[in-house]
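Components:
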Amino acid sequence: MARLSDIIETFLKTLINEEEGSVEIQRNELASKFNCVPSQINYVISTRFTTDKGYYVESRRGGGGYISIKRINTESAGDYLMHIITSIGDKISQHTCEVFINNFVDYNIIKYREAMLMKAATSDKVLMDVPIDKRDDVRATILKNMLMGLTVL
Amino acid sequence: MARLSDIIETFLKTLINEEEGSVEIQRNELASKFNCVPSQINYVISTRFTTDKGYYVESRRGGGGYISIKRINTESAGDYLMHIITSIGDKISQHTCEVFINNFVDYNIIKYREAMLMKAATSDKVLMDVPIDKRDDVRATILKNMLMGLTVL
DNA sequence: GGGTTATAATAGTCAGGGATAGTCAAAAAC
DNA sequence: GTTTTTGACTATCCCTGACTATTATAACCC
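Structure:
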């Protein structure tokens, strides 16, 4: 019962690693390789290869069309973190928060144990005593403050 | 006749033992195995597989959704951490919290960066939006949950 | 040849259906 | 009175397909 979208995601990420950061595909070709409708490729890309997750996607229609995916260069983790910090608004849901944290791990910005700490500090479970209308605010504050702490190092 | 929730609890714990610490289930499937409504699975998990009891739960909805339960590793530093966790009361001031964290670093339980994260997540600055009479409770919860996270592995 | 138009070859969008899991409060059981 | 059980309602995720948009190239006309 493996989800096809996950398989395609993994396939693309492997390709990106092999190609050192970028890959160019043809939508229909990839779709037929995985026996799915072409639009599922769009679905995978729009849910897994977003800017927030550190990817840059370009495409072109018509004859010789293509989709190219590039991993954003994260040489200076500090800059990337600052970018993320400023992009986080005043509120953030637990889910979105986890997505961010998982990405930091993917990009080797934080370690697994650090991710566990961050998730533990921003889970709904931990914020039970915070009024529900304030919960996402507190979470955003905690997350941003932890990230700020990392940029200092 | 034992209560159904207890039976399901035992079943899951047996599975976790067989699978060496973790198990992945489908909510509806498990519910139909025990002839109960799916939400009873949620009840069992939220009452028997809590962080306090040493479990870590993740899930995903939609096609191919699942619920995964992991038992927290209680070996090595885990025992010491568990001891600390139980010694922390329901409330803790920012100052006491920092003393704890500094000690963890001194005793090589956590690294410097991890300490930064923990302090960032438990500072008064970050808990501004939490009603003052709840602040020390939330801080204690966050601290304990972060420490629990470290015992997972 | 140069410009215009038709055709084929792509990719994008969006709304809907099905498959899960989550929440919450009432009812039932203990 | 507390814990367990239930079910209606909600939220989320994946997959599909019809319809649209864009691009390159071939065909056509002058």
